[in-house]
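Entry for the shared binder. Reason: the reviewer on the internal report wants the predicted structure included alongside the sequence.
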Amino acid sequence: MKRRSVLLLGMLFLVVGFAAVTSTLVINGNARIASNDDDFDVYFSASFENGKKKNSLIKDDTHIVFDYDISMIGETYTLEYDVTNGSREYDASVSINCTNSTEYLGITNEFDEETNLLATETRKGTLKIELVKAYVGETTDVEVSCEIVGSAVSREEVSDGTPADKVKSAWEITEDNDNNGEVSVGDLITLGSESFYVYNIEGDNISAIARYNLHVGGIVVDGSVNITPIENPTGLQYPSANGMISEDNGLTPSGFSLAGVVPFTTEEKYNQANEGLSEENKLKPNDYSISVVKEYVDEYAIKLAELGGEIKTTRLITKEELESVGCDPNKWSCKAGYDYSESEEDPTFAGAPEYMYTTSYWTSSPDEKHDEYVFHVDYFGHFGGSHNVYGDGALGVRPVIEISKTLF
């Protein structure tokens, strides 16, 4: 199993297996050392993976992280990186030292340590990893540490040069719920046009749900029960893609135009997935893996990658996750203070954050008692497993993402 760790000055992990080597590099450079600490600033300003610029590897000023598979003896992975001295008052003496090669991996790091890195200037380094011997046995970890050391060197005059720009994260915190300056549960985070509410943080992993449903599927107009396909769907989040706002009569309130309602699956999709399978091996209609909504979610993942999102996982939320944030299937409710199973107020029920039910959407969790039903949440805070997978006029697609906390 691959382990990920961050040390003060850097860590490179390499997993050697039968067919591949998976390597994760974390270079953590701490080079802010000077009398005028505010001016001295050495940082990574660019990174290149096997000749292609890939600044997304730079997690912050002093961390580079990569994952790469090496499958053949003699194959080489090359990471080039730019180190910039952002200071105007100080030159920098910078050295980068890595541990020696191992029995299976040849490791070299080229970086000019003899010449001071002048104020505002940039210097390139190159780290190469080569698989020199095939490993036989169970997967093992080979740990290689890289240490970056920087020291300020005084100058006689202030440099008039312009240092290379720092790499900025594609993510930002657009609503800091607790005003602590850090990403927290309840915050709204944004990548380009796409925003997400953070509902869980465990260690380095952030789970966040889309602010809006996706602009896919059909549209309900002025309280009609008829569904009209969306013209030119973007596949991205859309403020009016709420799903159907259902009241007790099951109809959308008059005057609303609501986009983004889709069936969980279709009979055609279900039949295709089970074609040729015996009865005992057939998947159920409420299986997320063969659903129509999964196709929309997977397409959305591609769009997020194009925005530079560094997304670990893109999926739908589960029944268990909704319960963990306060929804209660026994009360049929996510809404604080209301028990829909009894159709009455319940002041003792804390419920889930309101942003969890600002749209009507599918989950990926099947109702185990009914093969054609899936758990869902709607605009009024209902939560249950009663929606039929073939129904296409009520619920939308509201993806969940998992990302690294280091992006912030």
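Summary line for the report: Confidence is low (pLDDT under 50) at residues 1-35, 246-255.
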